[in-house]
Every structure is written in C-alpha cells, then in structure tokens.
C-alpha cells in the first residue's frame, strides 16, 4: 500500500519534476523492512552465541551476518527476504550460521507472522524442543529444522501436533534430530493434513514405535520422501512405490523394514532409490529394467535374490550414482560401469572383487561371463566426470593406473584395505578432497604433487612401506587438510614435519602412530581446534612440554600417547577429553585424574605410585578404566562400586592394593571385565557381583582372598573367564545349585588354593561352551560387541579352552565326563590326591594341546586312546603309580622321559627300562620339545594376561578403541543427499579412530 500511494503521488506531480524527484528521494531512503520485524530478527539472532566452524558446513559458505545492523533495511540483510510490495519479512535463511543455544518458547521469531520460508538448518540449538508456536506460521510453505550439527542434535522431544496446521507446507525437513520423536497420532495428522506436501525429510527422527502403514495416505503430489535411520519395522506400504510424482525415495538403514518392490507394470518417474541396509529382497536385473528414469541407486548391504552379480548386468547408461557396497559380490570387478559418461559416483567397496584396476594405456580388461560368450563387458575411455570412486575393502591387486591421477573432476578416491602395490603416482589436478590409500602394499616416496591438492581435507597413507623424507613443504599449501593419517610407515622419515611450525593450521584429526618421531610436532602449537591426536608407538621422551597443554584445550576429545617414553604428565587441562591413553610409558608420580567426561582412560604399565584418589569416582561416564601394572597402594575406593552402572571394563591388576573389594555394586551393573590379579586383596568376594549379569571376565588371581568357592557365580549367564588361582580359597566345590551352571565358561583356573573333596562331576557335565569344538576355532575373543573386546593371551599357543585345578587337595577319581569337553585345549589336575585310572574318555579330547596329571596317586596303564590326541604338544604324567607299556605312535613319539618319571611301573620308549623282551629300541621321536618351551612351577603353570581394548571410537590400540570405529559417529559433511553422506562419514570415523 505504501508503494502504491507513493506511485500515485508521483503520477499526480509529474508536472512538477523537482517535487517528484525530491519525494522519490525521500521515500527511497526509508527502510522497506518494518521496524518491529527488524528488531525481532536482531533480538532472535542475538539470543545465541556464535561458535566455531564445523565440518558439516565446510561445503557451504557461511552467510556473513555483518549486514545485520540496527537502523539498516533488514530486507537487505543476508538470509532475509521481504515481500516487494509490503516490505514484510517472508523468508529467513540462517543455514550454517554457527548459532549455539536454545530456542526459547517466547522467542521473537514467532512474531514474524508473514513468514513463508524458514531455514534454521545446521546450527546447534542444544536439544531445544519444537515449540507448538511453529504451527502459527499460517503462510509457511518451507520449514527446515535439520539438526545436522556438532556435538548434538538441535531439537529433541515430541514433534507437536500443531505442525500439521501448516496446511500450505510444500517442504518439511526435521531430519538429524536424533532425540526427536514423532508419535503415531502426530504423524497421521502430518500425512493427512499436509495435502500440498511435495518433500518430506525425517531422517534420523525416532519413529520406531510408528507403523510403516502410517505413510499410506501421503499426498499424491509427493516428489521426495526420505525416512533413513528411523527404526521403522514391518512391511512398507506398496502404494508408495506407485505415487505418480515420486522421484526420490530414501528408506536406507531401517534394518527391520521389509516389503516388496513391484515386478511388473511399474510406471514411475523415480530417479533416486536408496534401500541400503533394509530387508527388501532385491532382484537387480528386474529393478534396472523397470526403472527407466533411475539415475541414483544405493543398495549397500542388501538382500539380493536371483542372478544379481553386477558383473553380468547390462550397461547402466542412465545411472549417475551407484552404490553396491558390502554385498559380498565376488569375481572380476565390473569395470564396464565406468563406460557411462555421466557416472559421477561409484561405490563397490566391501565386496570380494579381485584382479587389477584396468590400465587404459593398454585397453581396458574385458570380462566375460562363463555362461554367455556374448555377454562381455569392456570400457574404453577415462570416466572424466567421475567425482567419487570407492573401491575399499576388496581384494584388488596390482598398481594404481595412471588414468586415476588424471580425472579433473575426481574428489573422493578411496582405495584402502586392498592389496595394491607400487608407487603412489603424481596427481595432475587439484580437485581431490579425500585420498584414502590406507592398508595396502604401496612403497616409495610420498609424491610431491600432493602439495598441489589445495582442496584436500582427508589424507590417509598408513600401513605401507613408504620411504624417504617427508618434507614439510608438501603441507604448506594444504590449508584445508583436517585429517591426516601417516601411521605405520617404518621406513618413512617425518623429522622435518615434526619441527615445522607453520603447517596444517586446520588439522582436526592427526594420526602419526609408529612414525619414528622423537618430539611432539611443533606445528601443533597453532592447532587450537584439534580433536583427535594419535602419537602412540614412537620415541617421544621426557616430560610433556607445557605448550602442549594448551593444544586443543577446549576441543580435544581423543588423545593417544601410549607406548612412548614419557616421564611426567602433570595436570590434564583438556576439559572435553573422552579417550585418553597413556599406556606403556615411564610416567611417575601420583595418578592423574582425567576430566569428568572421560569414557576411556588407560595409564597401565607405568610407574604411578600412591593411592587411587576418591575423586576417580567422579568419572560418572567412564566405560573403560585401566590402572594396571603400576605401583598403586592402599585400598580400592569403596565408591568405585558406584560406577558399576557405567563401567564396562575395570583393570587394577598388578599393583599393591590391599583391603577388600567394594561391595557397593548395584543392580543394573554393566561390568563385563573385572581384573584385580596380582594385588594383596583379602576378605571374601562380594556377592553383589551377581548383579553384573553381563560379566564375561573375572580375574581375582594372585591375591589373599580367604573364602569358599563362590557358587553364586554359576548364575552369571555370560561369564567366560574365571580365574581364582593363588588365593586362600578353601572347602569343597560341591554340586551346582542351578540347572545350567556356567553356560559360557571357557577358562576356569582354581589352582594353588586349598580346595578339597571330589572333583565336581556334575559341573563338568554342564560346561556347554567347552563341548562344541567347531564353535571355538581360532582365537577366542570376549566382549565382542560394538564397544569393547577382551582377548585372552596365554604363554602357550592355543590355550583358549582350559581347566586348571592344580595344586589343591582334590581326591577321588577323574570323572569320565571330562571326555565330553571336546573343545578343551588344556587340562591340569596336577599336584592333588587323585586316585584311580586315567580315564580312556580323555582320548575324545581331540583339541587338547597340553595335559598335566602329574603328582597324584593315579594307577593303572596309560590308555592307548590318548595316542589319538594328535594336537597334544605337552604331556606330564610323572609322579604317579602308573604301570605297563607306554603307548607308541603319533605325538607319543615326541615326549621325553620327563613326561613319565617317578612311575616305576612304566616301561618302553622313552623310558630306559624295557617291557619284557622289548629291548627298548623305539623309533626316534619326530621332534623334540624342550623343557624350556614352557613355564613350570610345581607342575604346569600358565599365565593369563588380560588386555582390554575398545573398538570404535578409540584408535591406536592393539584391537582398536571404542571409536567411533566401525559403527558409527557421523562425519557431518552434507555434500549431497543420502548414503553418500554416510560414506564420507567414514573419514570422520577413521580420523577419530573408531571402526562397528
């Protein structure tokens, strides 16, 4: 109205030009934006703090907000759009504005009643609830509250039903708000009321309680539906696939979602389909033939039926993005897919493809089907439009062909975890954003052309035989590099890199494990925002420099300095630290207490002295606490028991602790591994351990515990390892009190105690995990979920399923039921008072590698059935009353006289006394096992070393940390839709050191 009035006045004054001119000049300086709307915008924006930049916005340009100033026209502000006629604010776009803080229910934003578009995506609103007042924007057509932010999602709580009042909505995006929920009634209202909706994005919104049928009545206008990571279960409605305008359908990572794709009469404009990690059965040739408009197809980790090996697919000339990763495809890689000139994304990682990458200089390899001589595939040109090439986790060999260094559009080249050889070539273009070559067999120098890759953010060249000096000048121009992994290249010299001071200003994740460095790199002085740092397994000596305590003071969450020669650490200033590994150094002094948010803390194998401070109990989030192999003394703080709801692994072994074990273990205990071996602990075991239903490893060996056998432990369903050796346990073992005792027990060591009575025949009958030999092949690992694993490493090879009751006062006969434990690797009943014969049923233990029955009162002949124990490497039957001829053949030809000494009735080889007319001439043993090969102490003595490791969001450990790895932290880069965003998250995860 104001503009119409202005034009009318000007028209009436045309005859007076000067007056018209002055009037126009006066009005042109008047702000178009209404003052109350300008104030509302400023008040809204100023209610937040502005944080540092985050990775997920790296591909967006931050809208500069310098133009947001009082007294200026808000219609000219960045991210603000006004109606050209009325001056009302109709659109606000604050994408990636780094806003931090909660959105208050009475925020001035809700006074902008004329809004038609609102975009608050990629900010950090700290779990704010979505106010019902969002439903008051009656004219709103586009609402984007995407919570894709670090460190937490923006919005939480229930989606208010008032959102369904926005009847004009065309686009709704509530994705990546992990703590947000949509209840069934609200979802049904959304689906039924938003009849103009063309785009609905609800990725990562919790809808696990919602039936897929809630989407039955979606608008026929819908063009895009994205429901990834929603926890949907059951059958997806078939009619969605027949919506007349649907072009984009994302259902990936709903693991329990099933359904069926149309097999005929499927007329659809669908251009992008993503079904990765769902339960849909996929007939790939049928799918391709039906979807004529398809351009993007993401089928990672799917259930394929029929003849679906991609090697024999017809040319997919219309496809621009194809993901067939982690499907266990094998054979030759379908290189003909690269014939498609429009192909930009190809992901074939995580399969079993073999062979070499094709070399264009000698024409591309032809791959022929064994079923059809005419079904051949070949490629003939450089895929010049390729942006992403993912071939990791296959069996590819040979060298990296030169054409891969000459693709001007290539941004992601992911070849890690193959068997590639040769040198890394010179890159001819600077387009690469990520180069991942980890864990191949490459050698030679790091190419100088890497210095030209000015867009590079992720570089991984670990676990190779690279050699030569890495000059710091290679990294001078790599200002955008945020993740660098050069670990485990023993021939590579990084000395110049260590002493450089003006490189890698934006490094977030740095891994230089096993890199022969002797100093903490000086360039870290300027790395104020570093988040993950691994300098383990180097030769860093002395005290941690004071300047390093300022590095990443507010950002560092993962620090690994293990396996160095550090002597002092002092105060730990990193307030956001979650993973801290100081293992195997020379640290002295009292125990440093990490920040309150710590999840993983290991300072084992150092020279820490003094007592465990009670302040350690303030670590309310700690999952893994390893203080083993130090010189800690005094008692275990009673309050440690209060951490049992969070602690998964507690390792205090090999210290000088005394007193009793804390009894304050509450219901809901999450402990899986508890190791106190090698201390001075006395008193009984606390029966409150029965609350730890997930306990897998329990090691109280080599203490002074005075108690009877804790029979209540047999009720723990997951217990795998029970070590009570070298204590003051006494009494009889008796019969089990439960119907199925110790169902998962693999190792039980009660040796060097004062137990007496008969061996527990009924117990041996129920040790199910020791009976199934086929289920226990290979290395035995414990705690095998996505978080922690515990490996049992013993002195003798293969001792994974063992029973050691030696050095007690057991009497009676050896139960025949022992012969049912066919998975046994080791059996030790030595130094007891056992009588009777050696049971022939021991011949059933075909996996047995050592057997010690020495120093008892056994009599009779050695059962000939023992000759069938072809895995037996150690045998000790000495100091008994055995008689008769020693069996011959197989492994028995390898045992020396020491295996049988002090049995005066035995005769034959290898004893010196012959049997009857036998002159004692026996074949020479096929091999000789030296006594020094094993460790003995009053009979067979074996050590168990329990090492706790996290998998995943921890790096640099022998079996990996909790990382982040596998499973999986989100690398918040949103380059384009869907799973490819999930693909690039791998780099964030690898850089953080986590692997699922």
Summarize the structure in words.
With 996 residues, this protein is mainly beta. The protein has a domain at 708-781 and 797-944: Leucine-rich repeat, LRR (right-handed beta-alpha superhelix) (Alpha-Beta Horseshoe), CATH 3.80.10. Helix content is 7%, strand content 22%. It contains 8 helices and 67 strands. The strands form 12 sheets. The protein has a 32-stranded mixed beta sheet, covered by helices on one side. Strands 21-23-27-29-31-33-35 form a 7-stranded parallel beta sheet, with no helix packed on it. It has a 5-stranded parallel beta sheet with strand order 42-44-46-48-50, with no helix packed on it. A hairpin with a 5-residue loop joins strand 56 and strand 57 (788-794). The model is unreliable at 1-30, 361-377, 775-799, 918-978 and 984-996 (pLDDT under 50). Belongs to the RLP family. Residues 35-83 form the Leucine-rich repeat-containing N-terminal plant-type domain.
Brief write-up:
With 996 residues, the chain is mainly β.
Features:
single chain, mainly beta, 67 strands, 32-stranded mixed sheet, disordered C terminus, 996 residues, 8 helices, 22% strand, Leucine-rich repeat, LRR (right-handed beta-alpha superhelix), disordered N terminus, seven-stranded parallel sheet
What's the structural blueprint in terms of helices and strands?
Elements: H1 2-12, H2 17-28, H3 35-46, E1 49-50, E2 80-82, E3 89-93, E4 99-100, E5 117-119, E6 128-129, E7 142-144, E8 155-158, E9 171-173, E10 179-181, H4 184-193, E11 199-201, E12 224-226, E13 233-235, E14 248-250, E15 256-258, E16 272-274, E17 281-282, H5 284-290, E18 296-298, E19 303-304, E20 321-323, E21 330-332, E22 345-347, E23 352-356, E24 367-368, E25 376-377, E26 388-390, E27 395-399, E28 412-414, E29 419-422, E30 434-436, E31 441-444, E32 458-460, E33 465-469, E34 483-485, E35 491-493, H6 495-498, E36 509-511, E37 532-534, E38 541-543, E39 558-560, E40 565-568, E41 579-581, E42 588-589, E43 600-602, E44 607-611, E45 624-626, E46 631-635, E47 649-651, E48 656-659, E49 673-675, E50 680-681, E51 697-699, E52 721-723, E53 730-731, E54 747-749, E55 754-758, H7 761-764, E56 781-782, E57 788-794, E58 802-804, E59 809-813, E60 826-828, E61 833-835, E62 850-852, E63 859-860, E64 874-876, E65 881-885, E66 905-907, E67 944-950, H8 979-992
Parallel strand pairs: 3-5, 5-7, 6-8, 7-9, 8-10, 9-11, 11-12, 12-14, 13-15, 14-16, 16-18, 17-19, 18-20, 20-22, 21-23, 22-26, 23-27, 26-28, 27-29, 28-30, 29-31, 30-32, 31-33, 32-34, 33-35, 34-36, 36-37, 37-39, 38-40, 39-41, 41-43, 42-44, 43-45, 44-46, 45-47, 46-48, 47-49, 48-50, 49-51, 51-52, ...
Antiparallel strand pairs: 1-4, 2-3, 24-25, 56-57, 57-67
